[in-house]
Design a protein that fits this description.
Layout (H helix, E strand, L loop, with lengths): L2 E5 L10 H10 L2 H8 L2 H8 L5 H14 L3 H9 L1 H6 L4 H10 L4 E10 H10 L3 E5 L1 E3 L5 E3 L8 H10 L7 E6 L5 H5 L3 E4 L4
Parallel strand pairs: 1-2, 1-6, 2-3, 6-7
Antiparallel strand pairs: 4-5
Length: 195
């Protein structure tokens, strides 16, 4: 393969944060209480540097997932590819269709959750590196990795997954400070390209 394309999802390809989008579908108005108010102490601990962003994210998402009705969650996950299509930026959709071919390797590198992005990535033949979540025997959710797929974590996951030196060209696309480290490893980097 000649070209490697590394694309952030939330805010770059999509016009919404995919995890918040799905949790709002799952929980309705209860989302705001659980995401913001129920986690107020954890948020203060984060701002006081007693915890890191990934620990806060895990706490928030576990609370949201554990409060989601299991059957509804399974139903939403089964339709996640269709739901994701609704939040893809039109310019990004055109671009993704253009780069899908046998000479390109396309990897979506996201700080979002695997359960919401996997079906869409698979349907489009994209590889996916993200925060992997599994459901244990008690129907509780666990994060597979001990670090966030964000900032340096994105680069770590990319290097663990693929030999970037085997490509002639590396292109990276992002829209936030969490993407900057990924953009640095590219031959050509694009910041907020589809806005």
């Amino acid at each position: 393969m000649k070209n490697l394309y590394l694309l952030d999802f939330d805010g770059t390809i999509s016009n919404k944060d995919s995890s918040k989008y799905f949790f709002k579908i799952l929980l309705g108005a209860k989302f705001y209480y659980l995401y913001y108010l129920q986690n107020i102490i954890a948020v203060f601990c984060y701002f006081l540097k007693f915890t890191n962003q990934f620990e806060l994210k895990k706490k928030r998402y576990k609370l949201l997932l554990d409060n989601s009705k299991y059957d509804k969650l399974c139903s939403v996950i089964s339709e996640s590819d269709i739901l994701i299509d609704k939040i893809i930026r039109p310019e990004a959709r055109v671009f993704l269709n253009k780069i899908k071919n046998k000479n390109n390797k396309v990897i979506i590198v996201s700080a979002g959750l695997s359960i919401f992005l996997e079906r869409w990535a698979k349907k489009n033949s994209f590889d996916l590196l993200t925060n992997n979540v599994v459901i244990n025997e008690e129907r509780k959710f666990e994060f597979v990795y001990s670090y966030d797929c964000n900032s340096y974590g994105k680069v770590k996951r990319i290097y663990e997954y693929i030999d970037v030196k085997s490509f002639e060209n590396i292109y990276a696309y992002g829209d936030s400070p969490g993407d900057l480290e990924m953009l640095k490893i590219a031959d050509k980097a694009y910041y907020k390209p589809f806005k």
